[in-house]
Predict the 3D structure of the following.
Amino acid sequence: MSGGDAADGPGPVLAVVHEAGHGAPGSALVLGLRGLRHDADAEMFAARIAERHRRFRVTLEGHGPGRHTLRLLPDAGTPRPASPGPASPSPASPSPAPPSAAPPSAAPLSAAPLSGELLADLLGPYPGAGEPLALAGDRRELLVEAVTRADGPDRYLEQVHWNWSGPLDRARFDAAWQSVCGRESILRAAFDWTAVPRLLLHPYAEVEIVHRARTDTTWRELLDADRARGFALNRPPLLRLTLLEGEPGAPTRVLLTCHRALLDERGVHLLLRAFYRAYLAAGALPGGERRPDLRDHARWLARQSAEGARELWTRAAPPRGAATAPGRPGPDTGQSGEGRLRRRLEDPYGPRLRSWAAARGVGESGALHTVWALLLYRAAAAEGPLPVSFGVRVCGGDIALPGGGGIPGLLGSALPMTVRVDPAAPLAGLLRQVRDARLDMGAYPWVSADLIREWSGRGPGEQLTDTVLVFDGPADPGADVGRELEAQGIGVDAPRAVGAGGGVPVTVVARHESGGALVLDAVYDRARLADADAAALLQQCVGLLRALTDLPDADPTVGGVLGLLADTEAPSMAARPPAVRRGALRTLRGGAASAEVICLLAVPGVVEGCYELFARDHQGPQTIVVLELDGPPGAVVPAALAGLPARGSRLVLGGCGPGAGAAYALARVLSDGLGSPVSVVMTGLGGPRSSAQALARGLAGVAVRRD
């Protein structure tokens, strides 16, 4: 993830100040607000909180520019939730408690706590905040991965490129994309992960389009530099375009980059079709916003019952003994980063495979899934029947929502497919298992891995599969649009993706080229699978697909097909590296002996560098330390806090973004144990500079509110 700064949003990052421990049961939550520039902004802010959280009566007081007090009094006539924190996962809210949840060992506290949703709304980007939508399926998991993993931004980007030949009107090109942005809410969407991961739909966004000359850079340099940029995930749009233009008459290469937590390749193709229509219409797409859109999809999800999905995944989740690795245990690869490979199933094998699969009641994707199951079984070195599991991308575009197939965006998930491979059984039986499993999971594309883990009794974060298969549909602009482009002398070829992996060691994407050949693109983690082993794996996959069409036996056994690989070695795969835990406590700035201690909570997803900037610019006498956590506060907190300097009579806890929730949870625990209030300063998401400035405003609020 890349962070922004001055342009983080429509206004400064808000800071909320709270004294944990004050108040009797049922008393008001008193919150100091720092950063709302005008009283009108503050009133709009309070009205929005009152509208979204009706169990509270909300009052607001002003104390001068940028300083307000918000009181939230529980409404006696409104039933209160039985317990603090987010509700149990559901289709509309498929997430467990965020990393800011209080330790399970904490004693019950008297004052009503801030729920995750309320805290997210308090720290949201105000004024001009986007409309919040709950995240489901892969979108939620990819967002959490993107803000918590230290792999760099490129792991979560999708790059799609194509050639544009013939006349290119720059102004018309740019206007067409801006027209699509006004019509498609997905392009005005950004993420918020302050307390609960969610999507925010903003009223306006502007697509970044850069025109470059081939004399300035090479194509490979452009791809690498573009991947290294990443996105500021809290600012829309999470899509940009770069045009690499050559000499007059030469084709222009167009690069579209988007974030995988927002758009998949199917969504990109839908947006491209809309763009072509806008370009043909002089740069202005007729009509208003697309409906249905993400909001309608979210409402549709909220109406879905989880019972059928729960029943399915309780029995269909991968068992713990399933084979999931595409290679046998091997040594460290000595490599790093992501590798990419491409292999083709060319004529005559492509048409033969389609005919072979159709004759057995499955599609090409079923043949690919069956072959992949055989490769996983072979890597496990088993001798008898064994379940194997791998992820299958379910696009979610065929949901029972009228017009839902036209919604661009990541509507589905990569769901685990589990089949039982028995060398003695007929191959036809394995094909039927694959077909039936795919039909079952297609009914619930909104299910996430978190829900599957919960329903099947797996631990949080436990890996379900090591590989994911994606079978993409056609990428052409449509016959009518294609003819109109040709009439204007414009030629565009099929977009080609340079995608990132799916958070697993191997992702394979299958698609048809314009000539009909079936192409397999593999993205793999080189730390787990060496280049030579990845190449062998993909080559064996293509080899088996070819061999299926030449089998002399019309009804072969699974073992007979596996025997075709007898002369090749199974790839090897390195073990998953152990998680690296960060140090618990470090001092950023020493202070006076009798001064307060400011303890900043660093959890995954906090904007990098904001605490260091705050400590550098702080002028007060306080000592500033950072408490680093890899997850929920839990049992590590008491031991870590033992290292805090024993100075003064007051502890101030602070946090930016997701660190705000961790600071609040810890403040409640400490205030209950110490019997005295603990001040907590919480800020929303921003760039390093704007987040540091919000912390400084909040700290000033602590000093003001000592009464």
